[in-house]
Write a structure and sequence with these properties.
The complex is a heterotrimer of chains A (about 200), B (about 475) and C (about 800). By secondary structure, chain A is an alpha+beta fold. Chain A is built from seven helices and four strands; from the N terminus they run H-H-H-H-E-H-H-E-E-E-H. In chain A, strands 2-1-3-4 form a four-stranded mixed sheet, with helices on one face. In chain A, helix 2 packs antiparallel against helix 3 and helix 3 packs across helix 4. The radius of gyration of chain A is 21 Å and the shape is elongated. Chain C contains 24 helices and 34 strands. Chain C is globular and about 85 Å long. Classes of the chains: A alpha+beta (about 200), B alpha/beta (about 475), C alpha/beta (about 800).
Chain lengths: ~200, ~475, ~800
Amino acid sequence: MARLNDDNVRLAHEIISRYPRRRSATIPLLHLAQEQDGYLTDDAIRHVAELVGATSAEVLGTATFYEMFKFEPVGTYLINICGTMSCALMGAGELMRHAEQTLGIPVGGTTPDGMFTLEHAECQAACTEAPCLQVNYRHRFRVTPADLDRLVEDLRAGRLGAEIPPHGTLARVRQSIPVESAAGAVTPEQAGAPAWFPAKDPA
Amino acid sequence: MSSYPWAAGYIDDGDRPKIVTSRFHLEDGYTLERYQATGGYDGLRRALAKSPAEVHDEVRGATILGRGGAGFPAGTKWGLMPADKYPRYLVVNGDESEPGTYKDRLLMERDPHQLIEGCLIAAYAAGLAQVFLYIRGEMPLAHERVGQALNEAYAAGYVGTNILGTDFSVDIVLHWGAGAYVVGEETALIESLEGKRGEPRLKPPFFPAAIGLYGQPTIVNNVETLSNLPWLLVNGMEAYTAIGTQTSPGTRMVAVSGHVNRPGVYEIVNGTTTFRDLLYGDEFCQGIRNGNELKAFVPGGGSAPWFTPEQLDLPFEGRLVGAAGSMLGSGAIMVMDHTTDIPAAALTLTHFYAAESCGQCTPCREGGTWLERVLSRIVDGNGTPADLDQLLEIGESICPGAFPHASSSALGLEATPFPYKMTTICFVGPSAYAPVHSALTLFRSEFEAKITRRNSIPVTAVHATPETAGAH
Amino acid sequence: MTATENAGTPPTDDAPVPDPNAVQITVNGVAHTARKGQLVIEAAADAGVYIPRFCYHERMTPVGKCRMCLVEADSGRGPAVTVSCMVPVMPDMKVETESPMAKRMQEGVLELLLANHPLDCPVCDKGGECPLQDQTMTHGPGESRFVEEKRHYEKPIPISDLVFLDRERCILCDRCTRFADEVAGDALIHFISRGNTTQVMTFPDEPFASYFSGNTVQICPVGALTAKPYRFKARPWDLEEIESTCTTCAVGCRTVVQSSRDELLRSQGVDSDPVNWGWMCDKGRFGFEAVRTERVTEPLVRTAHGLEPTGWNAALRSAVQLIEDGKLAAGPSAVAVIGGARGSNEDAFAWARLAHDVIDTPHVYAQMGDGLPVGMLAMPRATIDDTAAASTIVLLGPDLKEELPVLYLRVRDAVQKRRVRIVEFTPRESGLTSLAWKSAVYEPGGQVEAVRAALADPEIADQLAAGPVVVIAGRSNLAESSGATVQAVQTLLAGVPGATVLPAFRRGNVVGALQVGMRPRPGGLDTRGILQAAADGKIECLVLVGADPLADFPDTDLARRALAGARRIVSVDTHLSASAQHADVVLPAAAFGEKSGTTTNLEGRVTTLGRKVTAAGTSRPDWMIATAIARGLGTDLGFRSVDDVTDAIARMVDGYEGVTRDALADSADGVLSAPPATIAAIDPVEVEVPVRNSYDYRLVVTRKLYDAGVTVSNSPSLAHLAPGQRVHLHPLDVERVGVQPGADVRVSSSRSAAVMRVEADPTVLRGTAWIAFNQPGGNVGDLIDSTAIVTDVRIENL
């Protein structure tokens, strides 16, 4: 599987239609591709480029700017341990060393069974609950080494399947704008003040 | 009840006024049903009963300072758009990622309708034809909650065409980030929303209000800023400005993390609450852990120069904090007790900004990494005496001239106030330097100790664990 | 005198009118008058102060990324750190480029740029002409304190067939990537990754295959991008150079030609404001390789053993003899001269004098049957700048990207930056279709109808009435008679009074050659007529001056019959072309870079050609050869030097009065000539398009930039870039033929048949077939009947 499948192409067109310029859909479509394949394949990037009207190089340039996009397979569960200041002050370094030991891989590595990839991450916006980590971007707070071991065990046993989808799946609730109530994308060419707004801004 | 399992980190002891967190204690506060049952969308109804100009005046009068970091008043910002250029867009900055900061994530997860209502009021008042709600990629729960709320709001006729039977029509499009701190900078956010690399644009000329998304006038407002609007429209300008001070009205959400007894996110009264209140007050953090001594704290997110106990009595007020040599930024305080290895702590932040540099301008791309590497060498015990001045020289190439810092009576230092000059396009480069500069200015002896290897602190310990901390 | 003292009276000549565009500033304390909106970096340059820079390039949107141009500027609120390439001047601004703060910032940025830049200058092609090296000398701290390990990447990697990228040397100034996207429209290189590991890169398996890739090498401020043809060939200080004009096509890009040890090594674009803005296409830039490859180095005469070398005296004698014999056999009009478009104005003028005045034949023509009638030049002429400043550009001609590449860049810029609108009529999607406001893809023969329909469309009519309209007119399909295009242009001009025409004639100096006289006298034949006459046995002596009908004339069969039918053939050429191989005598001609003179571009602009290297072997400039033949025929043309010819053109050619050597020396951008009044307008044309018969695909034949022509096939760096002969069909038509894309099919016309690969190509209109002209591996010219209005073909599964 490499290019977007038919369902995702339909979804892609729906997403594109929300934006005044189709290129704005680049990141959402890359997420769609990553959800489909677990990482971004060259063919998927090419396909996204076609869909948003950019060159493959441009889309690659965008994709490689953002940490969440992966260009080779990663584990089913991507464990990101935060190492920024608040977490570092509260023992993130120790947690990372423990995780390396528990998983038997160095930071940046993937377990041989393809189950886990371990990464160092930057601030995850949960600084009061340090140290924290995310599994496929789902938070875990105030994680002790023992918590981490239990988490790994639960993931291995498939006990968290309902809560944590495989890598690539972000939200399981998508926005869907009903056709009949959509105000529609407003392109820059649609000059003129909106209907409710006095043409000359009194401000 | 002071904290809630469904809103980890949020604490609401005491009887402080609540403007944006009033539904955090409700487990189902994020649903349309509960939102409506608790006065939701009344602000929108009141707004639609007025003219856009009247709503704009109300917001201007309330002086809602932007909560993203720069603190620019929202009403004034809306007024900066050229009067004759349309369409105009609203981009909601939900790419919260400043170290130490989180409140937008909670606002999106806990009260998404409040944010949606705020977007609608802003769009109505400022004539914004389409809204893009940009949420940080690593926040899937926020995405799900806001997505669900939008679906509900469309179905209920709050968003889309002819909202509540008026001629006000606007779409709110939920947009994904994908992991890049710099995208929190408003022009980078716009680039990213255009499907490009999130590289900040130069200001001037690219002030979003004049040249923003697709080159059109664009308002970029922070999630917390917009979340204030429903309350404002329901309760009015006078009620809003009655809270806080004249220059900093209303409340602010502040996250206090690090070595305190009760780290948490608090909605505080703006302008009057002091850092001492926050760090030591009973309704807030209740002091430094294990009765330790406070060594230093970062008052406004990772980019801010550091304060020491000498600045504890400053109130949470932008101009006073600026004059004292730092900034309030995004409302994040990170606390270091006396066990903290200062160079190692600074390194975590410098590493962050170096890693998050977009790479387009030379001083940040090369200077940030260079700072990190020299600092890292020092922390690893491989520094040389010349390295300390080298750090300041690299910093001078990023921020020429005086760099802000706090006063220190112990060191005989006067404060150098904000702002700084910079050779970079945006503040990421200077932010890589800020912790280095603060740490070196206020705690130079700790660096020297590492270089002469007189220090017994193990090189890998950024922190001291609670068990060992008390032993010092 | 007293007028200025009376308040309210308008200023007189005595009182200078305040210039509304003047902005008073100071630069390093010296007062200077800048222009409103001008960038500080430019204003400072005008004031004689060079602000160092890497990312700033005057022909691209400033991005302010490298930060080298930081200065202090005070607009009344105290000195502020100012990005001089992004910030426009303000009234009373005080700019300080050498204050302690400004110097500190410049030194700081340079030190940071050098932090990760390898110090491999001794082995770097850029060494000696490197802005980073130069600015380190003038603005740098003098030493590096960066003791950490530098960034490492795989050393130079090819990012295309012509360009290598060394990422370690790259300073990420965004010049090449900006050029690729903004100027060329080929965003095939891009920044990837982020922060300290940001790098320029292509997408896997999608190389930087841009026709303009060489420009990125030229504008790279370090040695990160190098061009394969020049890598390790010379050091900058060994190069000698001269300004010249590229004659690869008729745009006439200004260039500087560089050599070492009497060998051409490099061409660099020169910024000529009305023409090329410093840009070149890769064919023009690298085509100099053909000058040193497979040249005819000495005269050849036909003997029993074929063409054999001989001396000039003998060769000239035999050329004169062939012409005289031809005249004797059937009179002067049995002699015909084709060519002259590849040389200089001087070459063409001398040959025109020889043909018209000495030989006295009316059959003289510089075109190869692949353009439009010379009468197009009598239409109200637009310049390239007029075109870029128009409100509407109508495209009724070839794909500019393929045939006149730098004109394509200028039109692209006009559309993107000046909001000019394109109305395009084309037989298949062109390089500009995606930028066109309206694009009508018509079936061959249908362009008149398409133009009529457009004129009847109220929206288009409004646009055409809204402001200046320039028509870029040329031959859009070699398998369709030029009459259809002429009629379409006439129809358009009738509907849009005041529209002007930029002739999209292609060959290097074709406009110059036609204007100085290489065109038929009344009663004379055009090239098709000459070839037909030759095929009919009516031409006793055919003279080919840098002309290769077998390769260039669209109807190859006619060309072949003509060369067989002509009793005698004299060829003057740089290379032994397919046609020259049929000659009885071949006189070796000097090539580009080997001769001086002048050339005329498609807008009529005359610029100089520079001589940089010694002509190959004993080859001589064409004008000299014409003069010698004239002398052999008993006439002294009076030309002792090329300057004599230039002077004679100014003196004798209508429209070239102002084109004196003095005027050329005074104007860096050349001198505009006017079309001679003696070129008659074309009478109204009406073509009747035949209905389709059993040949069910209408043929479209156009040129690609890279083909099997002399320049490309003799330039080793370019030769393999020609795509080869394929037939392109709409994907549904491929299905209809019943083959898979990539399979071989038989393409047959009433003339001939050929087997070639079929490509599925959605840019091709259904029911038409597109084949590129003169490609290696076959010649579509065999299928074309130049007497027909359109050519229809049948396409069959083998």
